[in-house]
């Protein structure tokens, strides 16, 4: 199981945005937010780069969850693999901890780990976004719905690492949340 945990973290270190940037001869760390994630790739290079990065990063999450289940590990260990792949994505060793923010990888994990939790996440996001008109702020409600569904279905013992991953992701997005909230206040005034 230790090999699975190490492999999950190392897989997280494979940052799709870095490779997409190489493909387009652009170091995304030098542009806009400097973040190696799908959003920055899309803003700097274009929609194709966003899609490639999003799919590549989401695939990491899918692979880790499916691999853990293939080897028959308990669900808490599979969830821990999910947390570790997100940690590897956010804090890659080879880039001195300057990675992405984990949303796309979380989407891959979320869809694969438990479909009911993923549905709660998606429903909350799509219910809130028409009113808030901010994907960033709508994610807060989506993450809370995911956590709420974990508690509702009494799956905390199995899914606690994914809750930790959500807290990490939200912490990494704290400035994005502040900026989006400020923009919402400005639009209303």
TrEMBL record:
What InterPro entries does the database record attribute to this sequence?
G3P_acylTferase_PlsY
Q: According to its UniProt record, what is one Pfam family this protein matches? A: G3P_acyltransf
Could you tell me the superkingdom of the organism this chain comes from?
Bacteria
Main subcellular localization, coarse class?
membrane
Where is the protein found, in the record's own terms? Cell membrane
- Pathway membership of this protein? Lipid metabolism; phospholipid metabolism
- Any stretches that span the bilayer, and where are they? 6-24, 44-70, 76-95, 102-129, 135-153
EC annotation?
A: 2.3.1.275
Q: Which GO terms describe its molecular function?
A: acyltransferase activity
**Membrane topology field:** Multi-pass membrane protein
Which leading EC class covers this enzyme? transferase
| Keywords of this entry | Acyltransferase, Cell membrane, Lipid biosynthesis, Lipid metabolism, Membrane, Phospholipid biosynthesis, Phospholipid metabolism, Transferase, Transmembrane, Transmembrane helix
Question: What reaction gets catalysed by this protein?
Answer: an acyl phosphate + sn-glycerol 3-phosphate = a 1-acyl-sn-glycero-3-phosphate + phosphate
Quaternary structure, per UniProt, is: Probably interacts with PlsX.
Query: Which family does this protein fall into?
Result: Belongs to the PlsY family.
- Give the function comment from the record: Catalyzes the transfer of an acyl group from acyl-phosphate (acyl-PO(4)) to glycerol-3-phosphate (G3P) to form lysophosphatidic acid (LPA). This enzyme utilizes acyl-phosphate as fatty acyl donor, but not acyl-CoA or acyl-ACP.
State the protein's name. Answer: Glycerol-3-phosphate acyltransferase
What is the protein's species of origin? Paenisporosarcina macmurdoensis
């Amino acid at each position: 199981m230790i090999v699975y945990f190490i492999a999950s973290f190392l897989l997280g270190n494979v940052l799709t945005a870095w490779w997409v940037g190489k493909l387009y001869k652009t170091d995304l760390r030098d542009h806009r937010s400097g973040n190696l994630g799908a959003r920055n790739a899309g803003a700097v290079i274009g929609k194709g780069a966003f899609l490639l990065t999003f799919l590549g990063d989401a695939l990491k999450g899918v692979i880790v969850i499916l691999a853990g289940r293939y080897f028959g590990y308990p669900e808490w260990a599979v969830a821990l693999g999910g947390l570790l792949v997100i940690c590897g994505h956010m804090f890659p060793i080879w880039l001195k901890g300057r990675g992405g923010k984990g949303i796309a990888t979380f989407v891959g994990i979320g869809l694969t780990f438990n479909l009911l939790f993923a549905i709660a996440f998606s429903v909350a996001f799509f219910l809130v976004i028409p009113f808030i008109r901010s994907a960033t702020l709508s994610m807060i409600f989506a993450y809370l719905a995911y956590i709420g569904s974990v508690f509702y279905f009494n799956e905390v013992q199995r899914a606690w690492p994914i809750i930790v991953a959500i807290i990490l992701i939200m912490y990494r997005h704290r400035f994005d949340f502040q900026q989006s909230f400020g923009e919402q206040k400005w639009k209303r005034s």
